[in-house]
Automatic annotation (TrEMBL), chains A, B:
InterPro entries listed in its UniProt record: NAD(P)-bd_dom_sf, ODC_Mu_crystall, ODC_N
SUPFAM superfamilies (UniProt xref): NAD(P)-binding Rossmann-fold domains
Source organism per UniProt: Acidovorax carolinensis
Pfam families reported for this sequence: OCD_Mu_crystall
Annotated transmembrane regions: none
Protein name: Ornithine cyclodeaminase
Length: 363, 363
């Protein structure tokens, strides 16, 4: 890529990303992103962190999630519109950028709809590896929507889960999940209620999407020693766990200032004790201390996970020589002469000499 | 564009934008964006506003600038790296997105490096039209870098400026500006100092780029009745005007919470009196009240101006049938089945059946 302009941006479209994930394998990508997340969480203090910037509307939310270390800046654009599926659109759509801190050049523009599903599952598995009982084999999956297959594969590969107990208020969602997991070797049990699915599970993963204060899990359902992977409660007004359940458990979070606004702990006072997961991974704080303890990962999705995913995908694209180059930023013959470059580029375009399209990656 | 997927994003690359601006004309685009800015500032209370999110590093800054009304969300990514020109890169590079609030779909991804230059000049001209003396004909341009031609053309077209007095510490920058303005009909005088350039001017525009607390303009240089268009002081630690000069003038800003952090008024206490420009445009507050008054537009660049520019460019692209369609978001046959779509798209890609590239706009 050395022959391209220094302002050229590598572009990974959604179809290109599907091709990349297909060549690598979904499980391989989740494992690779999980390794990057672990590396990046271990150098947590090196990142400039902030809670994401959310724009709420009656139908949903649009968020920007920036983060940077000394060398690399990333941000993700992501929406959450629970009623989108009624319009034939995904509930969650995302894209992101990886840029050079030293110059500000956007080096990579990537789809992140597929990638967010991978990284959310990878993050859940990293947390469960540190917090669930090591002998965990059975997981309940409450909510069998777009994220559920990725969670199933991540926990099979990285946590050792062999059996899934499935529940969704929409039987069609569960049927889709069962069909998609065919051939994976996972044992599947379709359950008639949340309580039935949760009974006897080692890990309970909640993936519900309604933008409401729901109580998917109540204290009576939870057994000693369980790990709860609470993924669906991730914005103000959107929760899944009963507050008493949180009070009786050990709660772990990604980035406390953001989770207090968006996670299930938004139901609790601002001084409710939580542990940031990076402290556990780094050995500064204990994770699970005994087999009967109930642990909760109150996951909301933090910008650092997208940083990890974007750098994994950039490296994979370079390795596989995938993606295209886009001229999102003008290449200026004299960077102090923007006006001259504009006039020259406009003249070329009018003569049909410009190539405003994307150039394929050099072979 | 009705045949494209509902998740399809219109893409305006930097060369495509140069072509679009070339077809419309720079002056025409500036006037069109100025009209959009005026419209949008007049409905100021309808916007969800916030100060931009800045990530500072030793070499520069990377910022995200989101804003939304009930129907449309936009954000801009923009950097500021004063030493970039030594590496052959622009000091300021930008791109942005316009999205649908109801669904979160990104409808437009556009270059904004050229466009930011146009909208900054349009904003300055909108402010000067409300604040400068109506008989203003002579403008001093202090700093003759990448933004200077656009300011010159905006003030000629929208404010009635006929004569420019030019100064830059780098004579090559001034020579470039003089060459680029050849044939515009503007009368140009190259000056040997800031003081010489400012003397007798009706409007003084400062466009310096150093990320330092500078004093480009001191009180002794300023004459009664002048309008100061202070564009260069636009982030913490980067100022152009002497604090006493601000104290003796009437100061107007875009969005006070952001300008108090980033503008020249960062040198003054948080309760220093300023007027938001939209109040003047809407007739709620007076602008200039007498011919001897010194007015200052302490411009930093606000997200609403990019909102205005993005909607102008989207409409222009649709009108001229320019731009391409990009698959930044996957088109899912069943939006609840992300995993199935990923597997299917990956299989298509491996069979060479996918078209991961951009599709040209339908003719």
């Amino acid at each position: 890529m050395s022959a391209t302009a220094p302002t050229s941006t590598l572009y990974l479209s959604a179809p290109a990303m599907a091709g990349l994930i297909g060549r690598k394998g979904v499980g391989h990508c989740i494992a690779g992103i999980a390794a990057c997340i672990r590396e990046d969480f271990l150098r947590w203090p090196q990142f400039e962190k902030s809670a994401r910037v959310a724009s709420h509307s009656p139908d949903g939310v649009i968020e920007l999630m920036p983060i940077a270390d000394a060398a690399t800046y990333t941000f993700k654009y992501v929406n959450g519109h629970p009623r989108n599926t009624q319009r034939g659109l995904p509930t969650v759509m995302a894209f992101g950028v990886l840029a050079d801190v030293a110059t500000g050049v956007p080096l990579l523009l990537s789809e992140l709809t597929y990638t967010t599903a991978l990284r959310t599952a990878a993050m859940s598995a990293v947390a469960a590896s540190a917090l669930a009982r090591p002998d965990s084999r059975v997981m309940a999956l409450i909510g069998n929507g777009a994220q559920s297959e990725f969670q199933a594969l991540a926990f099979q590969r990285l946590v050792g889960i062999t059996t899934l107990r499935l529940f969704d208020t929409d039987p069609a969602a569960t049927a889709k999940l069962v069909a998609n997991l065919d051939g994976t070797g996972l044992q599947l049990t379709v359950c008639a209620s949340v309580a039935e699915a949760v009974r006897g599970a080692d890990i309970v993963t909640t993936l519900t999407a309604d933008k409401t204060r729901a109580t998917i899990l109540a204290p009576a359902m939870v057994e000693s020693g369980m790990h709860l992977n609470a993924v669906g409660g991730d914005c103000p007004g959107k929760t899944e766990l009963h507050a008493d359940l949180l009070r009786q458990a050990s709660v772990f979070v990604e980035y406390a200032p953001q989770t207090r606004l968006e996670g299930d702990i938004q139901q609790l006072p601002a001084d409710f004790a939580v542990t940031e997961l990076w402290q556990v991974l780094a050995g500064h704080e204990p994770g699970r201390t005994h087999a009967a303890q109930v642990t909760v990962f109150d996951s909301v999705g933090f910008a650092l996970e997208d940083f990890s995913a974007l750098r994994y995908m950039r490296d994979a694209a370079v390795e596989l020589d995938m993606g295209e180059h886009m001229a999102l930023i003008p290449a200026l013959p004299d960077p102090k002469n923007l006006f001259g470059a504009l006039r020259q580029s406009a003249a070329s375009a009018s003569q049909g000499a410009a190539a405003p399209g994307l150039k394929g990656a050099p072979g």
